[in-house]
Amino acid sequence: MYGYTGKCLRVDLTAGRTRVESIDGSTIEKWVGGVGFAAKRLSDEVPAGMEWDEPANPLIWATGPLAGTKVSGAGTFNVAAKGPMTNLAGVSQANGFFGAYMKFSGFDEMVIQGRSEGLVYLVLKDGTAEIRDASHLRGMDVWEVEDALREELKVKEKQVSVFGIGPSGENLVRYACIVGDRGHVAAHNGLGAVMGSKGLKAVVAYRGKPSFEVADPARLEEKSRELAEFAKGFGVFNEWGTGGGFSVLHGMGCLPVKNYTTNIFPEHEQMNGQYLRSHFKVSSKPCFRCSLAHVKEVEVTEGPYQGFVGEEPEYEQLAAWGPLIGNTDLGATVMMTKEVDRLGLDCNEASWTIAWAMECYEKGALSKKDLDGLDLSWGNVESAKALLTKIAHRDGIGDLLAEGVMRASRKIGGAAADWAIYTHKGCSPRNHDHRGARWYELLDTCVTNTSTLESTWSGIHPQLVDQDGPSDPFSPEEVSTINARFNGIRQFDDTLGTCRIASSSPKLQLDCLNAVTGWNLGLKDAFQIGLRIINQLRMFNIRHGLKREDERPSTRYGSVPVDGPAQGKDIMAEWESMLTNYYTLMGWDPATGYPLPETLESLELGDLARNL
Amino acid sequence: MARVCVELCLWLGRELGPDFDRISEMCSTRTERVDPGATISELMSSLAAGYPLVRQRVFDPNRKRFNPHVVVKFNDRLINPKVVHRETLQDGDKITVLPIYSGG
To answer: For A422-436, A463-477, A578-592, which range has the lowest pLDDT when averaged over its residues?
Structure first.
């Protein structure tokens, strides 16, 4: 089959064995790859009641038909498992090189189960896999692991892609993530903790030679070039990175400032992407075959961290380690970004947790003694850095905070329980203040079935799929309607194995997909496949205990902004009507959020309908 | 006459030309004079008539509505774009236009 190796690697860490299975054509056509393969695999292999840290919980790595092709940014892959943050499905995506190299090594998918007695790593090369001892890597951060394995395997930088866990994953921090290729992260829902629970420190994939064919190479050449050109002109990413929207978000009341206690951050123009790229020394670090090259390395040129070199903070890291914790030094955000990645922690959950602890410190709910002597005043980045290390090692107060902000705030209780930002499913939002003109993303964060975004797309761009945009971002009916109608295209995108930023036109992506596979899919088919994945994951989550009352924000996350451009906007006054409208338009029971049998039948999920 | 500041934060600086003050990479401003009591819609229609780029990217004077991909602030508070017909202008008012779904 064009575009695929047709192989899935099975790894049993308990037995120390691997084997290769075939992926049949009907599975490929129905689920495409990436999140699609993950949705099917989770549903088939994780029964109700299985806990996230059980050896049988499969850690699924899956790439897609465009991975490893000429499409710009074709090094992307998905990781999935039942996740520790939500105890529901967790699916996360990472860019870099691994998606391409895994495919070059001979595999579209990898399913890892069991638990090794000692720490191990896995090597993928030329259609084979080998489990090796990793006891010498214990305690290393993810950058050290990459260096150590490249030296051990005697390979140069681009010959292998390495993704692994830091001390956070080894210590089962609930929001540990999987990091590789110098700063690319599968961040959400604690997949690094799942990896740690299996005793797996890292996976190495060799570059190798492509073991799949392309149906129409000439057309792929033409369409991939068009797609790359489109991406360069789309939004501000090419020129200013994802931080280019930082000040816009401030203007929309969407910058998270001091744990949502204010919406005003006068220093925003000294911390945005425009300032960073015009003041710091910047060099490109593109992902696999990416012509957009929005990923950069930077050297700080001013302030207390002058001379520090690290990856350029993406928007979310700028927000997390800037306004959210009350820091106004841009260089410090570079330092914190590298620190959180090296330790293998999810930047979002780590920053919501630390910002909440800072508010607790300010208001007396946590004392300096409670914090092991740390002065956690707003903007104290060195204390924040020390706290990250404590969290990663579950040391002192770090043991509580390693549980994430929802669980930590419930443990502390009292008024402090109301200051934490999370959804009642247990996952955290991306680093915005969604109470501003991003109600659509607040809704998505609460109703998603993957623990990360589902119906939105780093913003939503209905014009790209021939739909109308909203006229009022605070209209509950418009917001919930647009989310439902846009739903599906993002999940389809996550099946393909390409970066969203480098390939931001769904229509051109489809042209590339058809050139690679010989298929003839259109937008309608793409939405249908995406909606199938969403409903499959939703049925999985329902089987694992999801209820309507879980799909809402915490008290602070859904509170009314006290100042700034969105002052007085009250999303919770509209919440139930938004949720009901969304459920209805998705073809779900408006009272429970369960997919209706006819919805499942229309998506070729009849078996699930009968089980319902 | 009332003086009203129109701030366009849409990265149009180079394209808008010298009639607008470019205050950052993202934002350009222009002070317009209107009759007291004029509406936001009337002001934006007048601006769109003079500047094709405003007509193309910001405000449709025929339909009397903002482009659906922008958000609007009136005196630093986000407003429903549909109120432009009834919101009247006073000396010193400020209208800010931002892209609705951008970045991050």
So the answer is: A463-477
What is the CATH T-level fold of the domain A439-503+522-611, as seen in this structure? 1.10.599
Point out the residue among A251, A274, A470 whose CB comes nearest to the CB of B68: A470
Mean pLDDT of A115-122: 98
For residues A543 and A549, is the Cβ–Cβ distance under 8 A? no
Cβ distance of A469 and B68 shorter than 8 Å? yes
Q: Indicate whether A458 pLDDT > 70.
A: no
Query: In angstroms, rounded to a whole number, what is the distance separating the alpha carbons of residues A241 and A501?
Result: 10
The CATH number of the domain covering residues in A235-419: 1.10.569.10
Sign of the CA dihedral with B9 first, then B13, B19, and B24 last? positive
C-beta separation of A168 from A391 below 8 A: yes
Interchain CB distance below 8 Å, B24 and A247: yes
User: Between chains, do A437 and B78 touch, taking CB under 8 Å as contact?
Assistant: yes
Q: Does B71 touch chain A (CB under 8 A)?
A: yes
pLDDT digits (tens, 9 = 90+) for A326-363: 999 999 999 999 999 999 999 999 999 999 999 999 99
Nearest to A177 by CA among A316, A277, A64: A316
pLDDT at A610: 80
Cα–Cα distance, A435 to A405 (Å, whole number): 19
Whether A103 contacts A6, CB under 8 Å: no
Q: Which value does ipTM take for this structure?
A: 0.78
Helix (H, G, I), strand (E, B) or coil at A308: coil
**Nearest-Cα residue of chain A relative to residue B97:** A251
Give the one of B73, B96, B100 whose C-beta lies nearest to A469's C-beta.
Answer: B100
Residue B104 reports pLDDT greater than 60? no
Q: Quick check: A565 and B77 CB within 8 A? A: yes
Using CB atoms and an 8 Å cut-off, which of residues 548-577 of chain A contact chain B?
565-567, 569
Q: Does domain A7-206 have CATH number 3.60.150.10?
A: no
Secondary structure E strands in A300-429: 309-311
- Report how many Cβ contacts below 8 Å link chain A to chain B: 89
C-beta atoms of B98 and A566 within 8 A: no
pTM beyond 0.90: the answer is yes
Query: What span, in angstroms and rounded, lies between the C-alpha atoms of A373 and A395?
Result: 13
CA triple A170-A176-A182, angle to 5 deg: 95
Structural domain boundaries, residue B70: 2-99
The total of structural domains in chain B comes to: 1
- The CATH number covering residue B13 comes to 3.10.20.30
